Structure formats: C-alpha cells, structure tokens
Batch of 3 targets.
Target 1
Amino acid sequence: MKYVLLAILLACGVALGISGAAPAQAQEQVLSQPTAPNYSVWERDARRAEDVLDTALASNEGLDVLRTQLAEWREAFLAAQDINRQRIATLRGQIEALGPKPEGDAGVPSEISDRRAALEQQLNEALAPVRAAEEAYTRANGLISQLDTLVRERQAAQVLRLDPTPLNPVLWPDAVSAVGMVGEAAIGEVRNNYVSRSGALRQGVVWTIVLLVVGFVLVFRSGAWIERAVLAWRQSRPDGKAAFRVAAFVASIFGVILPVAGMLTLIYAIESTELTAIVGDKLLSILAVLVTALAAARWLSTQLFPKLTPAYPILSPEAGGQGEGRFYAIMLAVLLSLHLGLGALSETEFLKQLLTRPVQSVLSFPIIAAAGLMLFRLGQILIKAARVGPADDPDAADEQTPRRPNLVIKTFGRAAALVGVAGPVLAAVGYVSAGGQLVFSSVLTLALFALLAVLQRFVRDIYAMVMGDEAKVNALIPVLIGFALVLLSLPILALIWGARSADISETWATVSAGFQIGESRISPTDFLTFALVFAIGYMLTRLVQNTLKTQVLPKTKMDIGGRNAIVSGLGYVGIFLAALMAITTAGIDLSSLAIVAGALSVGIGFGLQTIVSNFVSGIILLVERPISEGDWIEVGGTMGVVRNISVRATRIETFDRRDVIVPNADLISTSVTNWTKGNLTGRIIVPVGVAYGTDTRLVERVLREIAEAHPQVIIKPPPNVFFIGFGADSMDFEIRAILRDVNYVMQAPSEINHQIAKRFAEEGIEIPFAQRDVWLRNPESLPGAKPAPKPRKAKDGA
C-alpha cells in the first residue's frame, strides 16, 4: 500500500512540476523574442554619420569608432527582422488555408472575405516592425560601406604617396640629426628621472639587478641552450619515431618562450625604476618587438634550415645553404623590427615634428634596401631547394629517377627574388611607403606560410604518434587539418597586406548572414551544424555496424553473405537517417529546392543512368544474395573469388591474384556461374586413353580403384568409369567423380593422373601416343639425294 501512495505522490509532484514549469517556460520564450530598436536614437546616429561622410574630415580613428557604432546598430536590425516570425508564419498559413483570393467577390461567402481581410490586416501589422528593421538594416549597411570606402581610399593614398627621394644627399644631415635628437631625448629622460628618484632607486637596487640579470640571461642565452639541448637529444636518439619528433618540437618552442619572458622581465625591471618616459617607453616597446621577432625567426629558420636533417624535412637539405638561410631569416626579423619601430616613433606626438616625411624616407630606405637584398638571396635559396625537390619524393626512389620540382616553393622563391628587387627600386624613386609595404608584407607572408608548413608537419607527426603507424604521416586526416589551417590563416594574410580588422569582421558578417534560397536563409552556422550532426550520425552508424559485424552476427547461424548484406544495408539506412537528421537540425528547408531537384532529376535520368542501374543492381545483390563474399563465380569469361560487393560494383579476385571490378548490372543481366553456392561439392572429369588390345575391364577396375582411393572423392554417389569409344589412336575412358570441395578441381585431377601413370606401369597397361607414316613424293629434290634410275627400254622382240 505504501508503494501505491508513493507512486501517487510522485505522479502529483510531476504534474505540479509540469504545470508550474509551463508558465515559466512561456515567460522565457516571450523574453527571448527580439525587441524593436530605438529608431529615434538610430535616426540621430545615422544623420551624424552622414554628416561625417559629407565633410570627410574625421580621422581614421574617429571613423573606426563610428563604424563600430553602426555595426552594432546593424546587428540589432538584423536580429529585429525575426520579430513576430512565428506569428507571421501562422497568419500566412491561415490565409493560405482560405484558398486563393478570387478576382472579385462574386461567389465567395462574406464570412471568408471578411476573415481574409482581417487576417491580411493582422499580417501587415505584424510585418510592420520587420520591414522597418529591414529598411534600417539597409541604411546602416550602406553607411558602413561608405565608411569603408573612405578609409580604403585614404590607405591607398598613404601607400602610393610620393615622398622626396632618399638618395638626395641634402636630406641626409637632417636624418642623422633626428636620430641623435631621439637618443638625446631618451637619455635626457633617464637623467632627469634619476635625479628626482635617486633615493627610491637605492632601496630597490638589489631586486632590480636580480631582474636585469635574469632577463639578460633569458634573452641572450636561453635560446642557444634550448637549441643545443634539442640538437643533442636528436643526435642521441633515433629520429624516425613520431613520438620523439613531437617531443623535440614541443621542446624547441621554449626557445621562443624563454627569450620573450626574459625581455618582459627586463622591461618590468626598467619600468619599475621609473627612469623612462615617453621616448624611453616607446624604445622599450620597440626592443620587445625586436627580441620577440628574433626569437621567432631563430626558431622558424631552424625548422626550415635545420642543423641536423629531420625525418621529413620541409626543404631538401641536398640544396645546401642551410646556414645562409638561417642568417637571412634572422636579419629579416631585425630589419622588420626596425621598420615597425620607426613607424611607431613617427606616430608619437612628441616626435612628429622631428621625424618629418623626408627624414622618414631617408631612415627607411637603408632598412628597405637591406631587407630587399636579404629577401632576394632567400628567394634564390628557395628556388634552388625547389629544383632539387623534396627528400622523401616517392617517385624518386632510386638515383636514376629525377625528383620532381616543388612548384609551390619555386613560386615563393621567384616572388621573393622579384620583390627583393622591386621594393628597393620603388623606395629609391620616392614611393617609400609602397616599397616598405611590398617588402615587409612579403617577408611576413613567407614567415606565415613557413609556419603553416611547420605546423602541418607537426600535425602529421601527432597523427602518426596517436595511430601508431609511421605510414600515417601522409593520411587524409592530417591533409584535411592542414587545409583547415590554411583557411584559418587567410584573415592573417589579409591583415599582413593592409586589410583592417573591420574588413575582416565585415567579411565575417557577410558570410554569417548566409544566402537566401527561396524562403530559407542558409548560413555557415547551418553548414557547421549539418556537418556536426551528420558526422555524429555517421560515427554512430559505423559503431553499430562494427558491433553487429564483430559481436552479434557471428553468434548467429547466418552465413557470411547474409551478415554482410545486413551490415551493408544498415550502413545505407544509417547514412540516410544521419543526413535527414542533419538537414532537419540545421533548419534547411528542402521545399524551396524542389524545382532545382526536379530539373536535376532529368539530367540524372540521362547522365547517371548507368550508375543508377549499378546501384539498384547492388541493392538486389545484397537483398537476394545470389552471390556472396567468398563465392567462386564465373561471369563474362572472368573466374575468381568474390572479395567485396558494393552498391556500384563487385570486386573479384582471380586465381592469378588480380582484381577485376565487375559492374553490378552485369551480374544481374548476364549468366553467372556460382561454383560454391549452397555447397562446395563439384564434379570432375578425367579423360584416359589406352592402347588397342588392352583388357578394358582391367582398365575400368584400375581407374575405379584410383578414383575411390582419392580423399577428396565422395563415395556416395560413387565415382563412375565410362568406356567412351574408340579413338583414332586409343580406346578412350573417362573418370567422373564428385569432389567434397570444388576448390580442389585442379589438384584432384592432377593427383589422379599421377596415380594412373603409376598403376598403369604396374599393370602393364600401355598409354598409346599418335604414330604417323610420312611419304615423300619427290625424294630426289632433297639436297644430296641421288637421282632416281631411269627405266630401261625394252628390246625389240622382247
């Protein structure tokens, strides 16, 4: 009784919980509905943006702030377009349920006409905020496009501006003087701050010295220590195992982390003294960028041009130039840091009047020229390495086969060499900004793609380590991950070549909005949802298939063909259901694709007729199972064992170990001989000939004894010996016997023939062979033959 009362209380509690949760859920649903934006505030911001665009006097920073505000408004308007979505769908469904609207009111009941009018009015009221949001979204999008166009025009003018040529000697003294004044300003800041903070410095001098020592050690020695340790470790252990390569790669990364940490320690130690000010802080930030770039360049150059050849080198070590390549990479990092530092100093308010455009041109030109020279030499090294080809080229297994040139590396090498010449030439003419942008963007592009190559090799090593097979380094999954890395690097590549973060966000917003197909909007989120759900469904299908194949079906009495048919059919059903669930979860409306599908069906009917026929034939083979895997069949002159039955074709392995792919339609439409369907028994016929005059009954008895003695010959029904007839040279007999296993159809007759030869020799039975008499019609024509004697004439009267 107490259990009954407990069940009643639980049921009441569940009912109360449901009844209490319903209003909360409804309230949550109401709160989750998008709200209408404040259009009065939007009108004010939109007019201000239009005024800014009309004057075009705002700075780039101000335009970026304005653009951010407009982007927020645009997102709000995009979300507001979903207001009353369910209500609108319901009203449209109600109007469609009333039937098509007639031309006039004749013949239509007044109740239906009034109801349609009322529903249409409600629909217009529900659509009003949606249309307002769509109009505001269009306006915001147009203002953002105008802002982006204005900023891009300014950037283009900045890059393409013509400065005074840096080769003019008149400008050189001002440049040298500017450098000296920057140094004097930094020293003056330190001197003045030292006088005012001498007492405080003495109190923390020990801690500052400790930080400086640690920072200097990490900056100048940690990278070399890590490199030596990794190199010694690689020399002491085999480099062929993926786990070791992964560990060495992870250890080498500390060669970048420790110097950067040391530089941050130095900056903290210097800033804690409060000796620096505006110029000193800016120089410290430039020094931090320099150390970071040096550490990264040293690590990346060691990966590209290693001192000890790894198992899978990115560049062939046979091309040489390893040390030279590392030197050029490090020098390019130094020059890039100096270029960025000069730009940062020129943007400082305190130094703008000092670092004028002519001074910047003179100071930038030697940096650009040196970087161009380094880039040109690095391009030559890449071209040479591309001509040698990769060291693990599978097509060049022997020394006589030339390796294929790497077209990607060759293209990068030629581009680097060309930019190394074009950049300094542009800077010498006066286009210093364009020359610097071209050279250093190319340097960063090379560094980015080199990093991608290193990361892709690291991904392959991780995959090989996880899978436990060294051959997995060239598997499909690492290639797909590498392709994903390339796609993720595209925004970084765009930023390198002058794109703004706003441009990236705008592109992402456009892509995220998706595209319209009928009444449905498909976005990348829908594609990701579809791919994720389909992948989960596919993996579950494979898991169920594997469980049935290895755990469940082997315990049944079903033959292997039936088991394979069940596993294959379950796979097709699972993939279909996974695709259907993925489409439903992603919210893709397939009804709008009905017209396109109808048009494609015509092309499928004609162009894919053979494929569809083979597919249907494959389903029939899996269901009816006239043949199964492991059967010995003969079709179209091809004889072999069935190894695999797919939906399109069947793979047959012939007895000479060759695979023959037979379309499934041929197995359905033509005659197929299945030697092992149902059972393995089969008949053999062994012909025997004996000489004339032999006792035929003796031959019959001997042949029957030989056949019955063979272990593969079935006794019931017993083997038969038939006297076939009289041949031209022998009396012909045949042994006809049933074998237990038809797979011995060649071995059994061979063994029987051996026994026949042995027993015939013991019994004195002769096996005849053909004999022929040869007559020569003109023997005198043979070489060395004597002429035939002439017949003598008869005498008279004889």
Target 2
Amino acid sequence: MKINRDSLLVKIIFYNNIAIIITSLAVALITTFITYEDMESRLVDMSREKIYIVEKAYNNYLTSVREDINKISREDDFVRLKQNNSSYKILSYILKNELVKGNFQKYYKIEIAILDDQGKILGFTGDKNVFDRGLNISKKDLAGLDTKENYIIRKEEKAYSRIIYSYKNNITKRKEYIIASIPFEINILQYIKQYIELGSSDKIFAFIGDSYVTGDFEENLDKEIISEKNLETLKANKYKYYYSKKKIGEVPYYLGVLSLKDYHENNVGCFGVAISREKLFTTKFIIGLFITIIVITLVMLSTTIFARMLQKLLWPLKNITESAERISEGNYSTRIKLEDTNGEIKTLAIAIKRMLRKLEDNQRTLKQRNKKLKENLRKMNTIEQLILEVQTEEDVTKIVQKVMTAFISELGLGFSRGMFFRYSRERDALIGEQAKINSHILEIDNDILKEKKGGFKFQIKELEEIIQLIKIPFSDDNIISSALKNREIKYYNSKGYKYNLGNDLFNSLGLNNFLIFPVYNIDYYTGVMVFDYYIKEKEISEEDIELLKLLLMNISIKFRSKVEEEEKIELERNITISKVAERFLNNREEALNKLLKILENTKNKDYNNITENIKEIEGRVEQMKQINKILMEYSNPSDREKIEEVNIEHLIPEVISEFKASLPKDNKVLISSFISYTGDILGNDKRLRRVFMELLKNAYDAVLANNKVIKKIDVVVIRDKHSNKLKIDIKDNGIGMSQEKLDLVFQPFITYKKDAPGLGLPLVKRVIKDCKGVVKIYSTPQVGTTVKITLNILKEEN
C-alpha cells in the first residue's frame, strides 16, 4: 500500500524522528558541554595543584640545602677547624667547597656567610654585596630571621634565596649563624620543574619585581605573561596565588602564580606555572567528534527501528484514513476492516462506522434542507424583485397583477392559484375581479382528473369566470374580510371548507393550504388576494409569512406615499393659485376702481384731473402686461430647452449699457465691470440677458434703499483656474437681507416690494439651471449682497 507524503503515519514518524534527533542533540550538547567544562575544571585544578607543588618543591629545595649545610657543619673536620679558631672566612669557603663538591649544579653559585649573635658578618664568600649593607644584619632582623629558617631577599635587580642555620659555638658559648645565599636563577626552576613533573608543552617562569628573570618563555613575552595590573595586585600583598587564562605567544595557557615574599612580607617576585591548553582544544575536538558519531549512529538506529515499529502499529490507522477519505468523497458504501486491530484504533474504526451511518442520515436531511433553502432563496429573490417593481409602479391594478403573477409562478412562490377580490364601497363587499392559474397546473389538469387525485375541471378551467360571480360580505364573520379589516396576512395549512369564507360558491373552489393577502391604504381598503396550493402537498411556513409581511409593508408604504404626494402636490397647487389670484386680483381691482372713478366723474361732467387718472390707468395696465409677461415666461418659456453659444464678453457690457440707459439722469449709483474672459459659454442669449437685467435691477433697488454716500454695483467675470467653469459675481453695497429672507429668496410669489409678482429670482434660478449652471446668493444686512453664478465654458468638442 502506497503511503502519501501528507499522511498521518508519515507525519507521526517524521515528528517522532525530529523529537529523537532534537533530544539526542540536546543530550549530546549537554554531555559535550559537561565534558568540556570538566576538562576545563581539570585543567584549572591541575594549574592550582602544580602551583601548590611549586611552592612545596621550592621549600623542599631550600630544606635540602639546609640539611646539606647542617650535615657538613657537623662533620668532624669542620668541627675541628672551628675548634682550632680557624678564620671564619676560611670556614665559609670550606663550607661552600664541600657543598659544591656534593652537587656542583646545585651549589656552584652559592655564597656562604657566618654571623654572630649581633648580626655581624664574621666571614663570607664571594661578593660582599650579596649580603646586607655594611656586611651586617641588624639584631632585630636577625631575631626575625631566626624563626624563618629561609627567606628571599632582593638586591637591586637580583633576588636570592637565603637559608639560615644557627648553631652554638662551643668555645665562645655564643650563638652563631650560617647564611647561604643562592641566586634566584634557572637552576632552581629546573629543580622545581623536575620535581612537579611538568609536561613537555608546559612552562615554568619567575619574575623579580616587574621583570622576567628566568624561565621557559622568551624574555620579550614578559608583558603577555603577567600584566602590570596583576603585578601590582601581587605587590599589594592581597593574594598569595593568582590564576588566569592567557594567550602567550599565540599559545593559550592557564597560569598559576605564586607570590614570593621577603622576611618583611614584602613582595619581591613570583613563581609561575603555565599549563598549555593546546592539547585541550585537540582533545575537545576529538571528544566532540566521537560524541557526534555516537549520536548520529544512535539516531539512525533508533529512528529506523521506531519507524518500522510505528508503521506496523499504525498501518490499520492508514486503512481507516483511506476509508474516511472515500467517505468524504461521498462513497458511503465504504466498508471498514477491523482485522488485527485493537485498542484505540478499533474504537476509532467503530466510531467512524457510527459516523458513517449518521452521515447517511445527515445527507438525506441536508438534501431536504438544501431543497428548502433553494426554495426560500427563490422566494426571497421573488419578493425582492416584487418590492422593486412596486416602488416604480404607480397603477394599483398593475401592482396587484404583478404580485399575483409572481405568487403563482413556479419560478416565484409556486402557488397553484391566485384570486383577487376588490373592495367596493358602494356595496360594502369584496367583489371577485380576477384569477390566475399556475401554468404547471394547467399542463397537468387532465392527469389530475384522470388519476382522481382530487379537484374538478371548473376549479381550474372556469376559475376566472367563477371568481367574477363571487361576492363576499365585508364583515367580521368570514376570514377573508377579517384579514382586510385587521390588515394582516392569514394562512391555513388545511382545507378551505373548514372555514367561513363568506360565500358558498367560493367554498366550492376547493381551497387547500391557502393564505389571505390584504391590500390596503391608510384610509381605504383596496382588496384581498387569496392564494392556495390546490392539490399540492406543500405547506405555508412561518418563513413564507415573514417574507410576505415585508412585501405587504412595502406595498402599504407605496400607497401611503402616493396619497401623501398627491395631497402635497394638490396643496402646493392651491397655495400657488391662491397667491397668484391674490396678487393679480388686487392689481386689477385697483385699476378697475380707478376706471370706475373716471366713469363716475365723466357721468357727473367732472373733467378735472381726468388726464392724470387716465395716465395712471395706462401705467397700471402696462404694469399688468409686464407681470403677465413674467408669469408666462416663468410658467412656460418657449425657448427653455434651447442651448446655444453665448459670447459673454459682449453680453455683459450690452446688458450693463442697456440698464444704465434706463436709469434717471440724476443717477448716483456707480456701476463698474471687470471681464477677464473672452470666450463663449453654453446658455441662451435672450434668457441670460433677462437674468442679468433682473439682477442689476434688484441690486440697484437695494443700493438706493441704503444711506451710504458711495453707492456701487460691481460685476466681475473670471475663469476658474481649477475647472472649465466661468464665475460671474454681481456685488452691491445695498441694504442686504436677513437669513430668514435669504432662505426664501428663490420661492415663487414671495416678494418684499410693492406691485412686484415675486418671480424675478425664481426665474433667474430656473434660467441658470436650464443653462446647466449654478446660482447662489450671499447677503449681510446693511453690508450688501453678492450673487455668484457659475456657467460652463464652451469647448470645441461640445
């Protein structure tokens, strides 16, 4: 059986192997680290041990010298010479010669001095500078030396190891001292090195003061061996021993240093042992390589063995997995084998079998639910489409027809039949008006009758004729009228004959699983639609009713909005007519009163002032003609849709000139213009002239009404830099307007001037809008008003 790369078996083996490898590596690293640390610790311990042995070897060296001096000084010949009062100097030389003869390499540089109990040197060998100044040692120092037996002394750049041997002179009965002074040189180090058994790569060295004096290192490496800071520490008498890792001449060492003190406990130098770490690195590498090889070998063996064991153990799980995969692909006839399985895997297999049975049951349930879901989605789409159509349709009859069509369509809600009963106010009853049959029912009606599944021919074929014969009283006794009165949808998943439908003929139509859908407005009833499933075995659900409630709400809102809109339009029409009638009738009433007065005066042959009265009537008539003209232009302009090229550079100056010509000769209003655009715009020349003339007239009247000395009107025409628009500003310093007046400035028939129709600014707004432009007015009381107009500049492509 082939194993997939992403199978659980492979993953378990893989992750287990990873765990083994990680664990092995961790153990190997820890073991290596512990081993390395142990090796380092051993090297440190070796360095400490060696420096302790160095101190012991040095002391043994001095002890052996002392023993040799003691031995020679007790020999008969030497005793006899002392008794014969031989010269102390001779005795010193004899003692030195005897020592040299015994061990030349050890004593060839030794110097001997004999002192009395006062510290006076009685005799000595070699250079007198080897011993203390004046060839004497103070009695105080001698008393201190008497307890030491050996010490170190530094003379200039050299150091000497001194051994003190005291004895009693039998002749003088006084205590005398023999002091042996041995230079601190390589011979002492060689003795110590042999004694402590250093390796071939290990080193020994000695410092006197700050200077390297002897040892296995080259002299130029003294600064690398011990730094000045370490020497100062040793001099400060803080430590007797000092340890550190050092790299000396590119070779790593571990140093152990022993501080050397004189008899005053002052530091005079130091011994040092350098244990080489080169072999340590090699040893570490070999051990690391050895551990790595062992770990790799163990990992390979353990992963291979475990993989085989795990593969055999989990092989049934592989079979179960493949069976589960086939089940997931829809193959529910899969059979799961339980051979050679036990424990958790057998339990898993049994659980999968149970799951398989549940999956089969769930699949059947899901199919039913999916079918129901598709049906609900179809219904939701139908209702959504109906809501959109209701919002765009104005005719109530057509709305009813669309609803009925959608309800009885197999692509819609799928009802078998639909019937509409219109409410009649005159008869106070629901009158059957129309019926619709599902096309699917019409196709199988013969099969229905043949198989005797229920139903009669007249319930399908003659349904539309029968519906028109049905009249249902509008009362609470029947469920049809009750649904409309209560403005609620009612549904019944049972036969219709069980309920009072309000008409026996209606009861005979064989309603089955039906619902009642009322159609109404706020103040009046429209009618009722009844839908049923006839012989279908389908039921009406709560979800269906919730969707239909949404549709019913939208239909009601549509009808209510339509009524409100009609009432609003009617109200506005009445208000407008009232304003027009009031304004025009007042003007005509004044003119008629003047005319009656003239006729009365003529009748009474009173001809005084008749000429002035006639002129006044002529002015009234002319004013009424002008108002009529404005009203006609506002209500139905003949050239409203005419858009043409207009040269604004010529139009504005011509309008200003024409307006100035109409002003009185004593005009004190300054009218200025600034035009920076010479091209054409889109508009209507005649109507735009009327607009600018109206705006100039309003500005002129506002300026005359103020008390300012300077009265001016400015007209500015510029092109907008950021868009293909023309900006026209008409600004005056007149009386201005309050915000309340400004809000109503474009409302028709609203004016604050006597004998004005109130259509000037509304006409301006309409003309600018027809020219695809925008007009806005900004005003401040007692400051002035600015009218801003934006028009489109003509392009070649336009």
Target 3
Amino acid sequence: MASLVICLLFGQVVSAQTQNGSLQVEQGIKDYNAGNFPNAIKHWEEALNQYKNNPSDAAVVNENLARVYQQLGQNKEAIESLSAAIRDYGAVGNIQQVGRMQSELAQVYSNLGQPRKAIALLCGKLVDKSESSENQPSQEIKCTPESAQQIATKYNDKRGQVAALGILGEAYRLIGSYDQAIQYLDTAQQVSPESKFLVFNSLGNAYKSRGQLRELQADSANKAGIFSKENEFTKKSEEDYNRAYQYFQDSIKFARNEKQPLAEMRGLLNLIQLGSQTNQRKFINDREFNTTIKDALKVLEELPDSATKVYGAIDLAYLQRDAKGSSPFTYCPTGLVLSGDNEALNLLENSVLTSKKLQDNRLISFSNGALGHFWECSPDNEKALKNEKALKYTQAAIIAADSKLSAKDSLYLWEWQAGRILDEQKRNEEAIASYQRAFDTLEDIRQDILTAERDVQFDFRDVVRPLYRTLAQSRLDLLGVGAIADEGRAKELSKVVNTIDALKLAELQNYFGNDCILSGLNPKQVGELLEDNSVAFKNTGFLSSIILDGKTGILLQLPNQATKFKWIEDPNQQGEKIVSSDTLQKKIAEFRTGLVKREEINYDTTIASQLYDWIIRPFAEDIKPEKVKTLVFIQDGFLRSIPMAALYDSKLNKYLVETYAVATTPSLRLTTPKLRDRSTQKALILGLTKEATIDGKTFEQLFAVPDEVSAVESIFPNHTPLIDDNFLAESFQQTLDKTTYPIVHIASHAQFGIIPEDTFIVTGKNQKLTISQLENSLRNLNSKSDSVELLTLTACETAVGDDRATLGLAGVALQVGVKTAIASLWSVTDQSTSELVKTFYTNYRNTGMSIAEALQTAQIRMIHAKKLPPSEGVNIMYDHPAYWAPMVAIGNWL
C-alpha cells in the first residue's frame, strides 16, 4: 500500500539535464509512458553509456531505470539502479535527491519482505517495541543524519518527508510494531496535510493489523482463563477496527477529491476486505458492503492499465463474504460475492489481458494463476475440460513467474496448484515433481517472508503447512504402491525426512516471527548429519512423527542405517488397521488429561500402553536396549504436548523412560550434540517464592523454591542468586553483563502462550521477563550465548488447546542460543519438581552421564519412590507420572 506514496509523490520518470544523450532519454520517456517498458530500458541503457563521465545525468537515467524495473517486478535490477542513482546524486552534491532515492530503495526492500533494511535506509535506527507503546509513544522521531527522513527534514522537502515517514510506518507495521507505525504515519499526515490521503490507507492497515493482534491476544487470554483481559483486548480490537474503517473511508473521500483513482481503488478494496476478513458487520452493514463493491467495480472500469487494475480485478473476483484471512489460492473459496453472470470469470480474464498489455511478468503470473485457480475450483460437470483449462493457465503463470524470477513469491503457489491439478488427473509422479518444485521455491524465499517479526503473519497453517504435508504424503503414498525398489525407497524416505524437518523449522520460525533460530542451523541435511555424527549419535535412535490427512506416520532413523517408516496402526482393530489422525488426537488428549489431573493415586496405564503399542512397539526389533540407549523424539502437532517418557510397555511393566533415556528436539539441524566439561561451571539462579499477579492472572506462591534454590547452590558452589525482588528483567541483564553463566536456572512460573507476546517468566514485584527480553539479554553476552549450556525452567504453564503453545517450550532454548533446555510441559507441584531437579543436577554435575541420562535417572528414582527407604525423603506419591513425566530435555541431549 505504501508504494502509492512513492508513485504519486515522485514516481514519474524525468528528463536528463544535458543534450548529449537527451534524445535517448526522451525516447525512453515516450516508450515508458506508452507502456513499452523493454524499449524504454534499451534507450536509457544507451544513454547511460553516453553519461559515463557525467554523474549528474547518469543519476537521472539510473532513477528512470529503477522505475521501469519496478514496473516489471525486476527488483534486483531496481536495487542496482537505485544504488547507482544514490552514488551519482551524492557525487554531485544533490543530497535532497539522495534522500528521495533512499526512500525508493527502502520501498523496494519493504516489498521484498525485508522491512528492517528499509528502516535502516529511512531512519538508520530501529526502535524496539519495548521503546514505544500505545500509552507511551516516543515523543520525537530520532533518525541518523544520513538517513532519508533526516535529509528530507533538513532540506524541508515535504514530499520527501511524507514518502520517508509513510514507508517507515509501513515497514514498522510489517515487523509488528503497530504503535510505532501509527506514530510515523500520523507524523506524515501532519507534515503535508494535502497528501493525507496517501497515508490514510497505511494508517487503516496499521489499525487493522493491531486489531487482528488484539483478537489473537483475546483468544490467548480466553485459553489462559483470564476473562477480564479477554474483554479488554476484545474492546481494544473493536476500537482499532473502527479506526481502520474510518481511515479507509477518509482515504476514499480524499482520493476522489484529488481525482486519484488508483488511491481510491486501494481504499475501496481495503474497506471491502476489512468487512469480509474481520466479519465486522457492525462497521460495514450489508447495504454499505454491496455499495462499496459496486463503487469498486465502477472505478476499476475507469482505471488506466496498471498493477492496481490487475490486482483489483483479482481481489474482487475472489471476494468472499466471510473470508478466512489467508490467500484464496490455497483453498477453493466458497460464497464468492461476484458469483452471478460469470462476473468473477470476466474480471479474471480481463486481468490476464491487461497484464499482457503491460508486459509485466509478475502481473502475468498472478493473473494467469488466479484464472487457473478459478477453473481448478469450478464445478466438476466437465472434469476433464476444467482441469485442462486450469492446468493451461497455471502453467502460463509458472512460466511468467520463473522468467528472471520476477514473481518468485508466487511461483510456489502455482507449482503447488499445478501439483493439485495433476493429482486430480492421476498423474502422480508429475504431481510430486510439481510439489517438490513448490517446496524448493518456498524454502528459498521463506526466510524473506518470515523474517518480518510480525505478530499477525500470513496464515502459516493455511499456506506453508499444507504444502509440506501434501508433498510428504504424496511421496509416502507412492511408496505404498510397492513399485519402488529398495534403493529408490531409501531415497524417497530421505526426501520425506527433509520435508518434515523443513516443516518443523518453518513452524518454529513462524511462531517466533523471525530468523534468529536459524542462526545456528546446520546447512547439512538430516541424513548427512547422521553419517557425520555417527560416533556422537552412537546408541541413539530418532523417531520423527508426521501428521497427515487421516493418518499419522513415524520414521525411525539410526546412524548409518536405512530409514524405516510405519503408519500408526492398531493391531486389535477390525478391518482397516490404520489409526485415523482424529482418533489419535483424541487418545493423546485423553492421555494428557489423565496425567495433568492426576486424579488417581494408582495410575491407570491403559492409555499409556495403547500409545506405546501404536508408536514404539512396531520398531521394537530395531531399538533393542542393548543397541539403543537414548530415544530422541522430533514431534509434530498435537504429539508435542505429551511426554513420551510416560508411555508404558505392558509386556515389561515399565515406562519408556525406564528402558531408554528420552529427549526431544525440533530438528536435528538445530542440535549441537557435544559432551562438555561440567566440573567448573558457574550458575545463575533466579527464583520467585512470592505470589504474583500478571495481567490480571494470579500465580500462586511457590513454597518449595527456597529448598530448590538451596539445593542448586550447593551443587554449583560458584553461583549468583537473584531471588524475589532482586529477580527483575533489569537485574538479570546487569548480572549477565558482568559475567557469563553456562547454567541459568529459573525457579518461577513460566507461561508459554499461543503467541510469543504471551510467553514470559514471572519475576519479582509482579513483573515479567518476556521471551524477547530473555533473548536480548542472552544474545548481548560478551562471549556470545554460545557459552550458555543449559537453561532450566521449572513450574511452567502452557496455554491449553493450541499445539503452537508447546513451540514456546521447544523453541525457547534455540531462540536464545542455549544448547539445552530442561522445562515442563505443564505446571506441576513445586515440591516434586524441586526433588527431580536436585537429582538431575547431581547426576549432571558429578558423573559422565549425558543430559538425557541424568534426567532419566532422576525420573526413575521418582518412579521407584515406594521402594526407596524413608531416609531418601521422596514422597511415595511421586511415582505417579504426573509428577516426573512433564520434565523434558530439549535440544542437545549429550
């Protein structure tokens, strides 16, 4: 949306200053205005050759080239031309124009999903979320002197200021700093009131995004049982949607007055989408909704051929009354508003024609892909014909997207679409090849899509996850046909493993909203890691789960052995043996509920035994205890929420942890298996004993924390304690600034919400240490966070009902660069946790045990509580898995 600012403020091509190459420049301008972009490039490149020693005119030509490359979606070339223009304008001392070019360059980076680069160019300083809030916004925008914003201010360049501030606001919106975004956009409209309509759209989007975030926060508060907070966030969300509605209305009104149809079209589309995506009919009633659609259709007809005209036609064609909020190309939309008299089809066919006239590969790709999707989703009356049309347009979209990679961010969509159509035509191997290309493209660009630290990102569940699962399932189904030789099966399974691993990494990255967790990512694939680390991985088995459509698979990997795969089956089931994913999920929920509630003193192992038979027993011959000592689980979806250590072998009358040390990791590629010297390690011990209230929720007093802290202090003589009022975010940071601690032990309540903002540790004085603060503190260490070996979190709580919450547990250590985390899958009594932790640390410190084995020994001691002499001081109730099972080792298990 912010591109409107650039296009309408100073987005026109300009003439050169001298006569030498002016003919080429003027001819290029004529071609550009006529829409003949390739010829314009040819003339301007010739002019550039004549201006080699004339930076003043070369700057103008590079500026023009940047504009035409942006029109063609050739961002790499646009960046090169803008960088050259900045250099040339700088050489002749035209600093005002340097600032403007920096703003244009920032816009390109923002469009590429790199808003942080945009902010660096526009302001030079990134304002952290913690520095600005809705209630206490920064009073002054402080940017570095060489930044675009400061240059425009210094030269009183109103257009430059509006552009810099407008794009700056949009960039902050993209990284989820909505309060900061609103502040910059408000400042932009004050600088130049006559340009208000240019930033109204961005302001509307900022308020809409913040409204969506608050909806998520209300949902998170509901799941955590904080209903007063839920009501507060719901009210604030409605207020934000109301403000968004008003800004979109104002944008439309001002654009009409200024006779700016492109801006008017964007405002109309935004208003329509606000009504359909948020279901906020209290702002937009049916009559107004329908009137706005008619207005948009009328404006669309009058628009000159442009990108806005193409995208506007696609948006209107796929408009739904109750949209899911994610890309309509990932599913077949129902309830299209324009469903009569082939309205939607006509709009899509016209968008294809317009994109061809503009010779813009990016537009050609999107318009053909959208038309192909329309035919893919059309009724099955003439299945063969509609699939033929769908594939024809989809392939045209792929060709256009692949041309100079001008629409790489859409290429995966169309390859995925082609795969679905080929699947429908029973062309299975071709479909898999298409899915694989979609996967490869998405893996290549996913980091750019996800590096924006947005709280409300594109819907990962509807976009990335289904593609990865579809590819994995297609390969596994092909293996089930039985026509592939053993060598081919091994290769296919290896590809499945890589797909599943990529899904786990993508989910983590999406949950935290940034690429920090990828800083320690091993570039090698899982199979290579198993070969390279066969000594470190000796006696270790890796069990990966993948939840697919209707069934769940388990893969077993052992060093230097072929991967084995099995669907989860119930041998006692009549007929079809495969356990449906729904049945498994219900059984998992039942298993977890039975543990968390711990209603019976004598634990009923029936469900634990059933799950053992489904998940572990099929691999019994491969993981015999004399060969395999440790099992590392790489879990998917709802399987993350349960402790595998508590599965029960009814034949041996043993829990799984009594036979194997158990650990978990999100991905082997994020794990650094290494046994280190623990004899001289220092420990930072953080503890809270008092009752605390955070965001209206009361966290009870932890009576056993003093004993737990005392025990940890005795095990680690070289320690620093921060307890109760001394345990604050500031004191934690200051302590870490002075020295580095390989062990960080936190005995306090920790909550992992369904969004990162609700993930925090309770500190003294009714305050909290957020996951972002924890990350920043550990990353700022002088010797880097690489030296933090172990982070232990006791008394954790996760939001019930959302498997994303457990990503907080899996990712917290990786997010802050810690090698291993010991944490709880749910809140347990602090006395039992204290007992478990003392034994764990004693084993960890004083023996040659691995981390997984140290935890295993501590858990077995509690399992045998009734057999221990009273002098051991272990409560006999602690043999119940509710007390020992939730503690899990995450990351490096050695």
